[in-house]
Amino acid sequence: MTRRACRVEGILIVQRRAVTAVLAAAALLVTAGCSSGDDWEPEGGGSASADRSGPAASSSAPASAQAAEETPPAKGSVKVVRTVTEGLKTPWGLAPLPEGGLLVSSRDEGTITRVDEKTGKKTELGAVPGVAPGGEGGLMGLALSPSYASDHMVYAYFTSDSDNRIVRMLYDADKPAGEQLGAPDTVFRGIPKGTNHNGGRIAFGPDKMLYVGTGETYVTELAQDKKSTGGKVLRLTPEGEPAPGNPFGSPVYSYGHRNVQGLAWDSKQRLFASEFGQDTWDELNHIVPGGNYGWPDVEGRSDDSKYRNPVDQWSTDEASPSGIAYAQGSVWMAGLRGKRLWRIPLDGTKESARPQAFLEGDHGRLRTVVSAGGGKLWLVTSETDGRGTPGKGDDKILELRVT
Length: 403
Fold this sequence. Notes:
The protein is mostly beta strands. The chain has a single domain, classed as Neuraminidase. Helices cover 6% and strands 35% of the residues. It has three helices and 26 strands. The protein has helices spanning 19-32, 63-68, 148-151, and strands spanning 6-8, 11-13, 78-85, 91-96, 102-106, 111-115, 122-127, 139-144, 153-159, 164-170, 185-191, 202-204, 210-213, 233-236, 252-254, 260-265, 271-275, 281-287, 312-315, 321-327, 330-335, 341-345, 356-358, 366-373, 376-381, 397-402. Strands 3-26-25-24 form a four-stranded antiparallel beta sheet, with no helix packed on it. Strands 4-5-6-7 form a four-stranded antiparallel beta sheet, with no helix packed on it. A four-stranded antiparallel beta sheet has the order 8-9-10-11, with no helix packed on it. Strand 9 and strand 10 (164-170) form a beta hairpin. Residues 1-8, 10-40 and 42-70 have low confidence and may be disordered.
């Protein structure tokens, strides 16, 4: 099939030659299976995707379809304990503070707000200078310095007039509200920007290096260009230099990505990333140094061994994934268009390796999920991002208990 579709975050714009061509292409993807070059194994061995040649089974799938599956998804549970706060405008990044409180960014307003996780009280720290919101761009990912206890530095990823960049700012809670952010120090600049596909997630890894998910800004060839920082996972020092041991001696850690918006590590310090597909498959990938994840030549699984296959894949209406977190032996993945929270267990048995969907349609679009420790997650909704249908109280931060 000649690809003539363009999908952005939660929106599908399609021009297809014929329905039969789509079905044929889908069938081809299903039968492609797993690449011999995909060596990811969940805890305990085996392949999480060995039994799943199609999209992840939704908890709301027809009974006949569920009965046809050889292995039902493992039983887990998600309970919404409470609404932590509400009335947020285009929330995107979330960073729990070690002293208590949650920092949340507003994509369109360009501000960072501290939320008291006990009372829900909101205190605006201030606006980040230079943010130029538009489309999917604006103030996005947040991360705390690995030396936050001594330096109180907050890192932020945002879209400026010319590029996407990363800055760090001193957070001084003793100053008046609205004046608690110091002047931004630019750590890294020059990430391509576009109306859409700006990536935006940042996180410090177990190695204390800064990992960055970027998008290819609709210029698909950037994803395979190792000299470009678009369509990549980057790995930087806290000062913004290429991290020691990077595979190409540059900031690039992995490539061939369309739009990475989720980063998380499991208990074995393996890095996982969520990725928006175009009109067929969204992905959860295990990220390895130097790995090529196929875009734009491959969407979803492939039988070409030069590309790494996803751990799992979903039809685009089931996921459109943004943030991910690791808790209780599973990756938890927030779905925008899918309006659900996916659990992807990593313990290695076929039964538990099957993903499971929760909260389907209960809270609308879901943007960010962060581990809160003790079997709890913070979950951020995204109904005010221009693609949702805001209801009373939107947007919100929810506290979940998961198993």
